[in-house]
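Notebook, p. 212. Picked up where the previous page left off. The plan for this session was modest: take the two constructs that came back from the sequencing core last week, fold each one, and keep the raw output in the notebook itself so nobody has to go hunting through shared drives later. Recording the first one now, exactly as returned: residue sequence, then the structure token string.
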Amino acid sequence: MRILIVDDEIPARKMLADAVREVFENAEIAEFGKVSQVIDFITANKSDIAFLDINMPAMNGIELSKRIKDANPATNIIFVTGYSEYKGIAMDVHASGYIMKPVTADKVREEIKYLRTPVENESNDEKRLLRVQCFGNFEVFTPDGKTVHFARSKAKELLAFLVYKRGTGCSLKDICGVLFESGEYDTKSKNYAQQLLTSLVKTLREIGAEKVLIK
């Protein structure tokens, strides 16, 4: 599950993030203080729930919710604000919830009872093999939050490329074209790519996540 948190005020954003993490322990949470960052993020990433502050510079939460819905109509929008007069507008944009600040975990729990698009709040870490962070630096974590270390840095780049492909087909030639600056597809590059794939599989097997790769 992926959750967006957008608030330009750092203390309010931290309070909201802490409350959401208490409710959704295993969710991938992306925090933003600038609307421009959110626009870039949603073009490539789908989210299950977006908690949006309403009063923000450049673009308010109402307009941002429309942009998010255009990118992914299934996203549940929950507005977070210190003002009650926006409730009517929130209904007009078919929001899933409306939380008055200060935010608490109990308030979050109450609002998610009425999500327009149901989501599963995973409570069993066994359902998750890896947690991958794509925004900013590419990092891979085990379900308990430990960073995954790769024997070869290129093997980590290979996994990043496969994640970028989002489950679509990927050939050895595609891999060589992306990982190697020369872009050559000869016996030497194919053998090297196979070695990287073997190294990646070994790393994933060691942490019990080999099944994330489908060959």
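Okay, moving on. Second construct, recorded in the same format:
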Amino acid sequence: MPQDLRRDLIVLLPRLRRFARSLTGASDQADDLVQASVEKALRNLDGFTCGTRMDAWMFRIIRNTWIDTIRARRDTVEFDAEAADTVIGSDGRATTEARLHLAEVRRAMASLPEDQRAVLMLVCVEGMRYREVAEVLNIPEGTVMSRLSRARLALAKKLKDKPLGAQQQGTSQ
């Protein structure tokens, strides 16, 4: 494997993990998904065309690997160890509020259909252009735009329907 490709792949790992986390909803599954996807990529390196975007190629591999994983497994209950960790030495109130809000956003995103969640993650978190997302997901650009619009509306509705005012009432002392 050429050194440049190895370096590019290592640089991509945080983005790959973030995308995988958006698909799986759990850090441990995301790590497993990234590992399996990188192994596939390394085995099939001849499928990568030099001069093209490695991130788009890897996002496609991750998505396809995730689809294969979903097809192969049965529904199970997952335990998110990160959510169970405690934070020591920080402002407990601010940390708790931030974690609660982040947990709400994660739950709202997890409740979106996978196709909308993938588009939302690639556009809004990874900063990819519609054309690039269309190439990664092998769908028309118009489909990217409509899925993104539906995902944003659904996410906003889910977060708006949450009783945040009830949480904030106890904080106005």
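Notes on construct two before I forget. The chain is about 75% helix and 0% strand.
Flagging for discussion at group meeting.
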